[in-house]
Design a protein that fits this description.
The complex is a heterodimer of chains A (109) and B (117). Chain A is mainly β. Helices cover 0% and strands 57% of the residues of chain A. In chain A, the strands form two sheets. In chain A, strands 2, 4, 5, 9, 10 and 11 form a six-stranded mixed sheet that branches. Chain A has a five-stranded antiparallel sheet with strand order 1-3-8-7-6, with no helix packed on it. Chain B is mainly β. In chain B, 0% of the residues lie in helices and 49% in strands. Chain B is built from no helices and eleven strands. In chain B, strands 2, 4, 5, 6, 9, 10 and 11 form a seven-stranded mixed sheet that branches. Chain B is globular and about 40 Å long. The relative contact order of chain B is 0.34. The chains are: A mainly beta (109), B mainly beta (117).
Chain lengths: 109, 117
């Protein structure tokens, strides 16, 4: 069974700080990785995808992938209270996505 | 990306009854996915619906309990049959809006919050 692991949190950071969210996966052959944000009572929303080793930046978000160590992370710079949500890591297995349990992020004003 | 309309948005149902959830996409897509999110949990894939063929169910999910229809490339339904309180969850449909085999991630509908009493 392919697995995606995340720390459930909550991760609490002050406004303006960098939030670092981590995810590990079990299948060394995985190629595509995704970060979703889910506000309470809402459906998941795609933030970033990455499939090459290294960093990928989009605005305040940076996804980092290290295939040798089988982890992917999401950095949120200048965190805002509106970033408070659950962040889900997902790995593509053939044509479907396998999700981690999510990390709850709280950004304190 | 594709826009997905899912309904109903929520429902409260009696145990032993069935509920059919509809998912309409504004563009043609090869595969549609049905997920379940139990309270406080992550998303679990129930099945993948392809047009013109039977749905592919994940381990732990069976067609008799979760029958799926996929009559065309823009529409699918999921039925939750003979419901029990354990079926209380959010049910979400999802599509790969950039096309089959893309690396662009999937888009989700707004979800159906089901409570079984």
């Amino acid at each position: 069974q392919k697995e995606v692991e995340q720390n459930s949190g909550p991760l609490s950071v002050p406004e303006g700080a960098i939030a670092s969210l981590n995810c590990t996966y079990s299948d060394r052959g995985s190629q595509s990785f995704f970060w979703y944000r889910q506000y309470s009572g809402k459906s998941p929303e795609l933030i970033m995808f990455i499939y090459s080793n290294g960093d990928k930046e989009d605005g305040r978000f940076t996804a980092q992938l290290n295939k040798a160590s089988q982890y992917v992370s999401l950095l949120i710079r200048d965190s805002q209270p509106s970033d408070s949500a659950t962040y889900l890591c997902a790995v593509k297995d053939s044509y479907k996505l396998i999700f981690g349990s999510g990390t709850r992020l709280l950004v304190r004003p | 990306s594709a826009v997905i309309s899912q309904k109903p948005s929520r429902d409260i149902c009696q145990r032993g009854t069935s509920l059919t959830i509809q998912c309409q996409v504004d563009s043609q897509v090869t595969m549609m996915f049905w997920y379940r999110q139990q309270p406080g949990q992550s998303l679990t894939l129930i099945a993948t619906a392809n047009q013109g063929s039977e749905a592919t169910y994940e381990s732990g999910f069976v067609i008799d309990k979760f029958p799926i229809s996929r009559p065309n490339l823009t529409f699918s339904t999921l039925t939750v049959s003979n419901m029990s309180p354990e079926d209380s969850s959010i049910y979400l449909c999802s599509v790969d809006s950039a096309g089959w085999g893309s690396n662009y991630g999937y888009t989700f509908g707004s979800g159906t919050r089901l409570t079984v009493v």
